[in-house]
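Researcher: Structure for this, please.
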Amino acid sequence: MNELEEARLGIASVDKDIAALFEERMRLVSKVLDYKKGNGLPILDARQEERVIANNLGNISDPSVREYYVLFLRDMMKISKAFQGRLMNGMRIAYCGVPGAFAHIAAGKAFPEASPVPFPDFESAYHACENGDADIAILPVENSFAGDVGGVMDLCFSGSLYINLMLELDVSQNLLGIKGSVPSDIKTVLSHPQALAQCAKFITDRGLEAQEFANTAIAAQQVARAGDKTLGAIASRETAELYGLEILAPNINSQVANTTRFAVFSRALNKTSMPGSGGEHFILVFTVRNEAGALAKILNIIGSHSFNMSSLHSRPVAGPLWNHYFFAELEGSVDTENGRDLLRQLQTVCDRLKMVGSYNSLCL
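Model: Predicted structure, token format:
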């Protein structure tokens, strides 16, 4: 063993000790929070933070690392405050849209005590979780009728978050209008492109003009603000109640079975449900080498490890023309020796391979 290997083993041992101490520190932080909640004190106590730094600097004997230890303490206290904030206020869930959006509905059903935080688009909601402004992000990945949500899949490829849970929400689309309007008044319908696609037959049969909006709830909000009887929105019942609209035609989606899957993203990969809990799935994104039979090799490796691929999507990669990545969902647990061997073999034939997450599904 050379000096580099010895140093890395030493670091791994120290990191293990730090992890145990970190857990203990967080347990004590939760006790501090209990006292603050009971005594009406705020989470932030700037003077106490400075005392902590001053008291702990004496524990550092090497002057060259002292200033970095201050940074370490400040980051630790920032993390502690974030943890206390979660315990005090509940998890913060980033989603795309406004109250009444289907992601907002899914968040409320899966995490009823959490605090949903709206963002204008998928990317900003995703990045809010990445940078710690939200604890998790809930974003749609697929609709049973309109297909996959490519923008969210692209974030899976380029971003750093993991999917630890899939939420399956039955979606019923409705034609909404302002109070006093009737279905024959509506000339133009506003909604998200996916919702418009889900209701394409209804729209075509009635000769309605369709206008795309970033979100179903934002479309409903616009109709409520406009006060125009000729404008309608396609959205949920919950949205109608939120914005004071009437349901002019219920359940207008082309197929009765209309389910949207929402991915729950977080910064850490959760393994507590694996393996053997039943219903496990995992997601891989990968690029293949530009040579004949490259994709076939990957599919053969997956098949030889007895994993069933439930879906495979191809998406263009930003940059060189005609480059694509693949988004694959597989059934089974990757946290097994067979799963780990699958990843090792795929590494040898993929230009890039990333495990996006391992998850169970929850029907709402």
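Researcher: Any notable elements?
Model: The chain is about 40% helix and 25% strand. Residues 3-39 form the longest helix (37 residues).
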